[in-house]
């Protein structure tokens, strides 16, 4: 809580010269940043008067929505998605800022024995032994997981035991006992009730993910969105980012 108070104090200095007037900032974000944004939203509101209207969905789905004309002020996506949307005129040129980076890990149900995942062979054996593995077919993590199975040479053996989850996190399926494990970015595991982090993927198979924030080319509240970006890139926000299993990218 003290860290959040420090965030508010420093943010007040960052945005002191900003024009008065509260705004609601519409934010579309990857679920990997949900914990960070939910934690920091109250401090941002106290410092600026602005509120955040948050929508969380997988990056591929959000990208399709933006391409189809959904309105928003700021988006938290993967760098490649931001760059593609900038080229197509949906994201304001020069507004992208990289804010956090994370690794992928294995989630299991809390209290269950933690399988070995520290080496490629350990991970391979764990995936082959799992009775059910959840994944999201419409997310960057889900796409990487399918690629991982192919890379390990076990796609044919594991595929019949995959549980495709839509409309919710595959971590939720693990928490409910519908699946034994899932492979996903660490922020989707840390702090989630009834699940635990079994371990990170081995370095040779690791998939590091960077998250970027940018302003819509047609933002209704562009100045407020820029204040949000300054907030997320401030050193004061770093503690909240770290607490959710991410590494802050501080200028």
Overview of the molecule:
- It is built from ten helices and eleven strands.
- The chain is α/β, with parallel strands linked by helices.
- It has two domains: 2-101 and 210-248, Periplasmic binding protein-like II (D-Maltodextrin-Binding Protein, domain 2, 3-Layer(aba) Sandwich), CATH 3.40.190; 104-205, 3-Layer(aba) Sandwich (D-Maltodextrin-Binding Protein, domain 2).
- Helix 1 crosses helix 2.
- The longest helix has 15 residues, at 34-48.
- The protein starts with a helix and ends with a strand.
CATH topology of the largest domain: D-Maltodextrin-Binding Protein, domain 2
**Low-confidence region ranges:** 12-19
So what's the overall shape?
Answer: elongated
**Corresponding CATH architecture of the largest domain:** 3-Layer(aba) Sandwich
Please indicate the percent range of residues in DSSP E strands (runs of 2 or more): 15-25%
Count the E strands.
Answer: 11
What is the CATH superfamily label of the largest domain?
A: Periplasmic binding protein-like II
The assigned structural class equals: alpha/beta
How many H/I helical runs? Answer: 10
Question: Averaging pLDDT over every residue, what do you get?
Answer: 92
User: What is the terminal-to-terminal distance?
Assistant: 24 Å
Count the domains: 2
Oligomer: single chain
Instruction: Report strand order across the widest sheet.
Output: 2-1-3-10-4-11
- The rounded Rg comes to 19 Å
